[in-house]
Every structure is written in C-alpha cells, then in structure tokens.
Amino acid sequence: MRKAPRLFRIALEVGNGAKAAKFYERLLGVAGRAVGGGRHYFDCGGVILALVEVSRRGSGGNAGPEPAPENVYLAVANLAAVHARARSLRCLSKEKVHDEPGGAIVRRPWGERSFYALDRDRNPLCFVDARTLFTGRRD
Fold it and tell me: Helix crossing, 79-88 with 17-28: angle to 10°?
C-alpha cells in the first residue's frame, strides 16, 4: 500500500497581510512569521496556516482576496479562551449551524464542541475542542 500524502500547508487569501497577521496572532494566541512574498505563516500542529496577501485584481474594482469556500477547522485545547478572543475581535459567526448559533460554543450533532468565526476577509473558520474531535474513525 502506498503512503498517503501529508497535508503541510493551507493558504487563505487576505487583503492586508500585516493586519491579517495581527488578527490571527490575537485570535490563535500564537505568533506568526513573515516569510516574504506577502505571506505570513502560523504553525498549527504540523500544518502551516498561510496568509497570502493578494492585491485588487484588474481595473474594474474587482475584490482582491477570495474567501475560502469551506471552513478551516482548528482543534484547540481551550475552546473557551479562543471563543473569548474571537468575541473580543468581533468575528463570531452570525449564521446558524444545524439550527444552533454558529458563533456559540455548542455540541454539534456529530459530537464535537465547536464555534464558527469569520476573519476580516470573510474566510470561514471553525474552532473545535480537541477532546471532542470527530474524524470519522472508530478506533
């Protein structure tokens, strides 16, 4: 059997790399690092969360960064602390998730305790209590 590939980096487009990096440092509670080329990297347990600064495209006033199409899921040891930081940054989701407030810490139907947030560039994030991760495995 072949060895599966290893996910090592996921990139999110942002409009202002320096401001986005400060936001993520406050939200995640860890320092990022500028790596050049308008990128900031955050080490997230073996996977790099990369913020990639993109400028406005074209002269027609097209928006610069495109939000990620799906949530980026982050397992955290202290969900309440991250939730408090997200609340202070005013980035908690206002959407409903399975008829529950997305921005509230809720036990989801699949068993995870989580909340949802949006960064300043509308990238969707989900923070999950690491003790309740559901990976689809039964081992």
Answer: 140
In the chain, the domains with their CATH numbers are 9-55+67-132 (3.10.180.10)
Residue among 86, 81, 75, 83 at smallest CA distance from 129: 75
**Band (136; pLDDT cuts 50, 70, 90):** confident
First vs last C-alpha separation in the chain: 20
pLDDT at 57 over 60: no
Q: At residue 56, what are phi and psi to the nearest 5 degrees?
A: -60, 140
pLDDT of residue 60: 55
pTM: 0.90
H, E, C per residue of 76-128: ECCHHHHHHHHHHCCCECCCEECCEECCCCEECCCCCEEEEEECCCCCEEEEE
**CA separation for the pair 62, 44 (Å, rounded):** 31
Separation of CA 122 from chain center: 10
User: 139 in helix, strand or coil?
Assistant: coil
